[in-house]
Amino acid sequence: MAGLQLYDTIVPTLLKGLASLDHVLAKAEEYAKGKNQDVNAFVSARLIEDQLPLSFQVQNASKAAQVAVGRLTGTEPTFFESNEKTVDDLRKRVQKTIDSLKAIDAKTVNARAGVKVDLLVPWSGETHQVSVEQAVLTHNFPNFYFHLTTAYSILRAKGVPLGKRDFIASFLGF
Length: 174
Fold this sequence. Notes:
Largest sheet: 2 strands, antiparallel
Radius of gyration: 17 Å
CATH class: Mainly Alpha
Strand order of the largest sheet: 1-2
CATH superfamily: dinb family like domain
Structural class: mainly alpha
Helix content: 55-70%
Number of helices: 6
CATH topology: Four Helix Bundle (Hemerythrin (Met), subunit A)
CATH architecture: Up-down Bundle
Mean pLDDT: 96
């Protein structure tokens, strides 16, 4: 049996994570509508005072995916402006990120397996040479999941009726 291809290991997982993020944002819209509340109050919501808000969490999940796209394709990442003011804006950003991932050519990604890239360690300023797959699996994925989970947790803490299924179902595909 052949091993997993780089594209098949990474791109579908990012797409499923972004679908999960869109789902929890949609649930926030439903909740606010049902409670006759302003859904856009969630955009600046935080888990705790010194943590960054929902908007930042969504923007940085998107950025983690965009950095992965750059690493996987050998191109400079294209970053979207981080100026979202509404939940609808955040959902549009998620969709743009999904669209950028869907545009990736699998053969291009698979051909980059083993290629060395620079990985900057933000807290030390050190740069390390690692393979594309190592950079994505050990840096982009944890960063991506951190921001997905934090966005989910902010919405849950603000009363949106989310459960584990809301986070996981998109990954399972059913």
